[in-house]
Specification:
This protein is of the alpha/beta class. Helix content is 35%, strand content 29%. The radius of gyration is 20 Å and the shape is globular. It starts with a strand and ends with a strand.
Length: 328
């Protein structure tokens, strides 16, 4: 019988129900053994819908379940630190939805807890586990597009009518930078292998939505005079793109963070499409997590990476609300 990592899920959020739980079920290594909500009826309804054996009416009960090997946290952002630390203190590795926390200080406390308890903590940027990004880096490293001169990323969608959504609670970590801006930011850091030095962000702050940033456009200054320009939003038409511009060509990723793995390379030889395998990014994420937990591989992305990403988000948010350039 194949070894399985038994997952417990803290909360019934849409990302869990629609993407992560189905991804774990499709993975080679994982099974979802329990789900918890502060509302037992909701937990039982979700468990029945997704064929999850056990439902709990409190998060504490799930953390106390000795049969659970790892915890996935899709709770609102302001609850990430508390419940991740409580799970790690219960001896359970944690996959925490992005952004990992409300700020770098919280993220650092989570990283410290991972070190002190000796359990694995990972931030759920699922797109990073698809091999297309390794392929993109190979193309860049081979010199096909020359030296990188800039990166442009977008992630926008329109959900502004749902004013009760947790994304529109400022104290809970609402806003487009937290929700989707973190994707192009993390992607630029991944591709460049460097940290930005400063951020300048202009945002649409909406009083109708508890004064969160409903749209933000920004520039991150990286070493070597390279910049990421990006925009993110929750009150705009859907876009999900990444462009890497070089001196001799460019790479265009039309669906940068979702399960459409093709991309295009433009260089002196013309244009070609790179078609990557149709793999479930959430399943790949679960498999990578399990193999780290089992000691079969080293973590590709450590808690320190999550802290670094939060430092950039902190600077972006400060810039957006102060309308000033902010050092990272």
């Amino acid at each position: 019988m194949t070894k399985k990592l038994k997952w417990g899920v803290l909360g019934c959020a849409g990302i869990a129900v629609g993407s992560v739980i189905p991804g774990i079920k499709k993975s080679e290594t994982g099974e979802v053994a329990a789900i918890a909500s502060r509302n037992l009826d909701k937990a039982q309804e979700t468990a029945a819908k997704l064929d999850i054996p056990t439902a709990y009416g409190s998060y504490e009960e799930l953390l106390a379940d000795e049969n659970i090997d790892a915890i996935y946290i899709p709770l609102p952002n302001h609850l990430h630190m508390e419940w991740a630390i409580r799970a790690m203190e219960a001896g359970k590795p944690v996959l925490c939805e992005k952004p990992i926390a409300l700020n770098a200080g919280e993220a650092q406390k989570m990283a410290d807890a991972a070190r002190s308890t000796g359990v694995h903590l990972a931030e759920a940027f699922m797109y990073r586990y698809h091999p297309r990004y390794e392929r993109i880096k190979e193309i860049i490293d081979a010199g096909e597009i020359g030296e990188i001169r800039g990166i442009h990323g977008t992630f926008t969608f329109n959900n502004a009518g749902d004013k009760s959504n947790v994304r529109y609670r400022r104290e809970w970590g609402g806003g487009s930078l937290y929700d989707v801006g973190c994707y192009p930011i993390s992607a630029a850091r991944l591709i460049l292998g460097a940290e930005p030095e400063a951020a300048t962000v202009h945002a649409l702050i909406s009083p109708e939505h508890d004064n969160v940033d409903m749209m933000a456009s920004g520039i991150l200054e990286f070493p070597g005079s390279v910049a990421l320009t990006f925009d993110c939003g929750m009150w705009a038409a859907f876009r999900n793109t990444l462009e890497i511009l070089g001196t001799d060509g460019r790479i265009e990723v039309p669906a940068a963070f979702v399960n459409e793995p093709h991309f295009f390379v433009y260089n002196k030889d013309g244009k070609r499409e790179e078609q990557q395998p149709e793999l479930n990014q959430y399943a790949l994420q679960a498999d990578d997590f399990a193999r780290v937990v089992w000691g079969e591989k080293q973590a590709r992305f450590t808690p320190d990476d999550a802290v670094a990403n939060m430092k950039v988000l902190d600077a972006c948010l400060e810039s957006a609300y102060s309308r000033k350039r902010v050092l990272v």
